[in-house]
């Protein structure tokens, strides 16, 4: 197991073990590919630890089928690792057709469900996929989200994905990764393909 060395040791009175078991708020943002993919990779680690997992896909349609959903649902049903619940709140959208106002109410309802689940400690690991969009568009109040996440009980880890993460969310997170695009097949006119985009 790699042993990372922290650059500073906080004067918070906690032991190394106590600090190591604190819940993490992670944000995967930026214009590059791989934000959700990285979050689902973390979900695999959570599954391996036996943690209950809740995936909440904001904005994306229930018709959108991604490989990670199928794989995690199958793994969640094996009884070997953690359970997996998958929720889709969006009405559907694409980068080409951006009329997504129908998804606003669904996104708000999804956030209300996340709040209930956090309060009840339903899951140990949450993926709030594409959640930065309802925050960026003002559908869901960022300050409310930050307050709920700060006060979440127990040891619940949360990873939030999507472009344009609001700066207050970035500031509050424990781990922030910005995916940058260096090169993409779409630059050469190629569309998404099986096994790569879904």
From TrEMBL:
GO MF term list: corrinoid adenosyltransferase activity
InterPro entries: CblAdoTrfase_CobA (IPR003724), P-loop_NTPase (IPR027417)
Pfam families: CobA_CobO_BtuR
Region ranges (Disordered): 1-21
Keywords, alphabetical: Transferase
Recorded coiled-coil stretches: none
Keyword Transferase included in the entry's annotation: yes
SUPFAM superfamilies reported in the protein's UniProt record: P-loop containing nucleoside triphosphate hydrolases
EC numbers, comma separated: 2.5.1.17
UniProt KW Cell wall biogenesis/degradation keyword: no
PANTHER family noted in UniProt: CORRINOID ADENOSYLTRANSFERASE (PTHR46638:SF1)
Name recorded for this polypeptide: Cob(I)yrinic acid a,c-diamide adenosyltransferase
Organism: Streptacidiphilus alkalitolerans
Gene that encodes the chain: cobO
């Amino acid at each position: 197991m790699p042993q990372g060395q922290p650059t500073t040791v906080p004067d918070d009175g906690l032991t190394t073990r106590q600090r190591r078991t604190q819940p993490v708020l992670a944000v995967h943002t930026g214009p590059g590919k791989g934000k959700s993919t990285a979050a689902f990779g973390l979900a695999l680690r959570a599954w391996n630890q036996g943690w209950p997992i809740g995936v909440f896909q904001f904005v994306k349609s229930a018709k959108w089928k991604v490989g990670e959903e199928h794989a995690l649902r199958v793994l969640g049903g094996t009884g070997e690792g953690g359970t997996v619940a998958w929720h889709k709140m969006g009405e559907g959208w694409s980068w080409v057709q951006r009329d997504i106002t129908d998804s606003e109410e669904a996104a708000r309802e999804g956030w209300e469900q996340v709040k209930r689940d956090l309060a009840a400690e339903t899951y140990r690991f949450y993926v709030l996929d594409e959640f930065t969009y309802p925050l960026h568009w003002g559908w869901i109040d960022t300050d409310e989200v930050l307050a709920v996440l700060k006060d979440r009980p127990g040891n619940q880890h949360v990873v939030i994905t999507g472009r344009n993460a609001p700066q207050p969310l970035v500031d509050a997170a424990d781990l922030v990764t910005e995916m940058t695009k260096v090169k993409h097949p779409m630059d050469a006119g190629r569309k998404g393909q099986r096994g790569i985009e879904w």
